[in-house]
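Re: that backbone. Tokens:
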């Protein structure tokens, strides 16, 4: 199973830092521990699934447990458990307050990544994705870690406030870089003479410098890498793939079949960024994601058994084992020419 949430350590650190930042010195350590713990259970939705329906798991990942309306409920569940352990040291109301702060960070932080989070469920099924930070970013994590450790060790809520300020500044930098990358991607499309129907940019792993751009012009998706530098940007042209259209590409598939409905579900989960896998037959992929920002080699997709449309599609995770992949990524990150 895959997970597209920020790593649990970062989730916990943010929840712990927020709770610690408003605590008094006497309750500071307990507040940090409660906030840290409360920030984690929202990702328990990754456990929802059924072997008979492979798409059920990814449908419910970052779903109702991450919604704004569920925050008080999730915090209450956490509080009820922690109160049994901490009732002799801290009151129920205080536990709930710190748990509420910790739990509230989970969905909001995940919405800062590119996968999408059901923040507005049940009022909207839209997956909100601001795409301003990668799912793993050591700078963001380190700022929170140092602040929380210092605050916990020396009973200093002020340290948590400093860490939160630094983390918030880093997210604002991500927003700035996102806008810069988006403008550059539009300029690149215009230079090619393409009319853009849809476009997205997202940071690559562990940095805010190298971004992946995916845009649709007519019925083709174009993938590129953009290095957003302090003075100028550099483009690394990537691949392209024709979008998948069920009526055109699978005209004989019964529209009311299980397989057809699974394709519709995968469309929703992928925000319609779906193409046939260029390297595998009868596989649909989410072109938003790849190990290299210029590649159309997928990270995941669904395997279609066209001979049995009454069976569910199989969800597959792939690993790109291309040679020199790490070397190529580093070269783009540093703004260098790509290795031969």
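Recovered sequence:
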């Amino acid at each position: 199973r895959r997970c597209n949430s920020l790593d649990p350590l970062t989730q916990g650190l943010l929840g712990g830092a927020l709770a610690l930042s408003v605590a008094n010195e006497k309750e500071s350590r307990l507040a940090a521990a409660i906030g840290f713990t409360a920030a984690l259970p929202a990702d328990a939705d990754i456990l929802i699934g059924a072997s008979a329906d492979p798409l059920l798991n990814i449908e419910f990942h970052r779903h109702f447990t991450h919604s704004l309306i569920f925050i008080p409920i999730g915090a209450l569940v956490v509080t009820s458990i922690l109160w049994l352990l901490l009732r002799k040291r801290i009151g129920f109301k205080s536990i709930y307050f710190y748990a509420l702060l910790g739990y509230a960070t989970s969905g909001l932080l995940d919405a800062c990544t590119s996968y999408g989070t059901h923040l507005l469920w049940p009022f909207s099924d839209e997956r909100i994705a601001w795409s301003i930070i990668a799912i793993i970013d050591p700078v963001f994590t380190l700022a929170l870690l140092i602040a929380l450790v210092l605050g916990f060790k020396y009973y200093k809520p002020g340290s948590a406030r400093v860490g939160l300020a630094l983390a918030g500044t880093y997210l604002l930098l991500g927003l700035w870089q996102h806008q810069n990358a988006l403008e550059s991607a539009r300029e690149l499309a215009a230079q090619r003479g393409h009319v853009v129907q849809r476009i997205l940019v997202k940071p690559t792993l562990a940095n805010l410098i190298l971004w992946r751009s995916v845009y649709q012009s007519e019925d083709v998706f174009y993938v590129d890498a953009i290095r957003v530098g302090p003075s100028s940007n550099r483009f690394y042209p990537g691949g392209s793939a024709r979008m998948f259209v069920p009526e055109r590409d699978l005209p004989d598939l019964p529209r009311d079949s299980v397989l057809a409905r699974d394709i519709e579900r995968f469309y929703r989960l992928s925000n319609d960024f779906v193409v046939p896998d260029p390297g595998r037959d009868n596989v649909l992929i989410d072109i938003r994601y790849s190990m290299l920002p210029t590649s159309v080699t997928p990270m995941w997709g669904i395997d279609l058994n066209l001979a049995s449309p009454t069976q569910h599609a199989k969800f597959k995770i792939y690993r790109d084992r291309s040679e020199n992949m790490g070397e190529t990524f580093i070269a783009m990150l540093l703004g260098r020419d790509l290795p031969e």
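The chain has a mean pLDDT of 95. Residues 200 and 214 are 5 Å apart (CA to CA).
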